């Protein structure tokens, strides 16, 4: 009787071009490189701090950092579009992320996708 209670292994058909649920194809997760634009200026201690934070975070996450002088024409244009009031300004994938002292914790949370709902502007609802 115990033999009849055991389930036989089932084979499930996965359509071509689709992957099995819950399993990444190829065995590894796909990680994309994030683009960071750092708006800096000369003799800026907060800019140096931001560079150190980006170097630390870049060791754990794939980042491409582009540094642009805030006094340049392109730097002023980006600062106006992003609402950066003073250096350093940080744009993550072309969107404003922060200006002033860069928070390593906030950057890491954003890059790993574990930011709390209250810190995401799109998740806030008016009550």
UniProtKB/TrEMBL annotation:
Coiled coil: none annotated. Residues 17-27, 110-120 have a biased composition (Low complexity). Pfam families: Glrx-like (PF05768). Residues 1-27, 108-127 are annotated as: Disordered. InterPro entries: Glutaredoxin-like, Thioredoxin-like_sf. This is Glutaredoxin family protein. Gene3D superfamilies: Glutaredoxin (3.40.30.10). It comes from the Bacteria.
């Amino acid at each position: 009787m115990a033999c009849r209670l055991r389930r036989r292994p089932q084979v499930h058909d996965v359509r071509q071009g689709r992957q099995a649920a819950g399993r990444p194809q190829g065995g590894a997760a796909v990680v994309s490189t994030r683009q960071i634009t750092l708006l800096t200026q000369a003799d800026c201690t907060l800019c140096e701090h931001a560079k150190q934070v980006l170097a630390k975070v870049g060791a754990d996450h794939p980042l491409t950092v582009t540094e642009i002088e805030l006094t340049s024409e392109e730097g002023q244009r980006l600062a106006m579009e992003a609402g950066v009031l003073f250096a350093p300004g940080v744009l993550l994938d072309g969107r404003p992320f922060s200006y002033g002292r860069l928070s390593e914790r906030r950057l890491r949370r954003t890059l790993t996708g574990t930011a709390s709902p209250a810190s995401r502007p799109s998740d806030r609802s008016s009550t």
